[in-house]
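Supplementary Note 3. Input sequence used for the single-chain structure prediction.
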Amino acid sequence: MLKRTKKLKRDDLEELRKREELIKQHTLIVQALEYQKQLYIQQLFPKYGLDPNKQFNINLKTGRVSEEISSKK
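The predicted structure, written as discrete structure tokens, is reproduced below.
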């Protein structure tokens, strides 16, 4: 079984590598921002009397905080 293969030109390959690196950098930035958000939320728990061992949903439009209740089967 034979496969046809082509090779990218050097400039096209470099452009593709640069775009891949940008995607990687943006992914790392998003992860760092998500981590900062989680830390900030944890700092808010004592202020609002929330138990840090429980899960909460925060509605960003209304500001309502509701406890996530897991259903036991």
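The beta strands are 56-58, 65-67. The chain has one helix and two strands.
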